[in-house]
Design goal:
The complex is a heterodimer.
Chain A lengths: L1 H20 L4 H6 L3 E6 L15 E6 L4 E8 L2 E8 L1 E5 L2 E6 L2 E8 L12 E6 L10 E5 L1
Chain B lengths: L2 H64 L14 H18 L6 H18 L5 H24 L6
Helix pairs in contact in B: 1-2, 1-4, 2-3, 3-4
Classes of the chains: A alpha+beta, B mainly alpha.
Chain lengths: 141, 157
């Protein structure tokens, strides 16, 4: 009985370790359980208020997997919705929307680019073979 | 009674030059095809050597970048930034100056990702392990590209 209990305990411990080592789901990181709104670091105006050209806000939704992209054009927010898919290749994973694949990484608040924001995430585009340029988006919520 | 023998001689007289011409043609075709194969192999061999030299330069640039942080510390220190920037410049020289002639799509993507990771490491967003992993991925991709060089058939074959 004691041996069976010890064996069960060992199995639970191994399973727990394996779960703990699994990298976080990139979409889950951005959408949480339902939805989360993110804005590009440095953007100041709130939704509904007059915005500055170039400002972008992203609202990620877990189910169905999609993102609402609000872009400021001509002083007003213009919104579009894109489907989000997950990808994994060569030991890496991430999300893809709007024809671009991104790697998602949570950054520590003390990273200079986070400017002290506690919730700081980086979306780094993956080379698509068409252009040498990659895009990096820093988001906070 | 002499007619059939004469006819037989005439036919053999006609066939002999034809066979000679055919033999010469086949020989010439074989020679040309062999020469063409040889020149393709020679071109492929010289491209392989160029590729190998270019990848060696990339390997050196990657290695130089990875040994800048002393004792492989996790985050870049202020004292290492100058040397790191200089090595990153050397890597970018390889990227723009040496590789475009020989690289394939996979190597190009791996180089872009290493370049981005070096930037992220420099800005304190990623640690040394991420940079080293990306460097290893790049060198493995170069290695695979060299292996595949002999496996793929030249265009038109």
């Amino acid at each position: 009985m004691t041996r069976t209990f010890a064996l069960l305990l060992a199995l639970c411990s191994i399973t727990g370790n394996l779960i703990a080592q699994t990298p976080p789901d990139p979409l889950g990181e951005l959408a949480g359980a339902t939805t989360r709104q993110w804005s590009v670091i440095g953007a100041t105006s709130a939704t509904g208020a007059a915005c500055a050209a170039g400002e972008v806000q992203y609202t990620f939704q877990f189910k169905p997997a999609q993102v609402e992209v609000k872009q400021c054009t001509g002083g007003a927010w213009k919104s579009r919705t894109e489907a989000v898919t997950s990808w994994a290749a060569n030991g890496k994973s991430g999300i893809a929307f709007g024809g671009t694949s991104y790697e998602v990484k949570s950054l520590p608040p003390n990273a200079p680019v986070c400017k002290g924001n506690a919730n700081c995430v980086r979306l780094a585009s993956v080379p698509d073979g068409k252009t040498d340029a990659t895009t990096t988006i820093y988001l906070t919520r | 009674m002499e007619e059939p023998t004469k006819k037989g001689i005439d036919v053999s007289k006609a066939i002999t030059p034809l066979l000679t011409v055919l033999g010469i043609s086949v020989g010439a075709w074989q020679f040309t095809s062999q020469m063409s194969h040889e020149s393709k192999m020679e071109f492929s061999r010289s491209m392989y050597n160029k590729k190998l030299q270019a990848f060696e330069q990339v390997g050196k640039a990657v290695g130089d970048l990875l040994i800048v942080p002393h004792d492989e510390q996790l985050w870049i220190s202020a004292g290492d930034t100058l040397a790191f920037d200089s090595c990153l410049e050397a890597f970018r020289t390889c990227y723009w100056g040496v590789l475009p002639l020989v690289e394939d799509k996979a190597v190009e993507a791996a180089m872009i990702q290493f370049k981005d990771m070096a930037r992220f490491y420099r800005r304190g967003e990623n640690d040394y392990q991420d940079l080293a992993r990306e460097g290893m991925t790049l060198m493995n991709t170069c290695n695979r590209s060299l292996e595949e060089h002999w496996q793929k058939k030249p265009k038109g074959e």
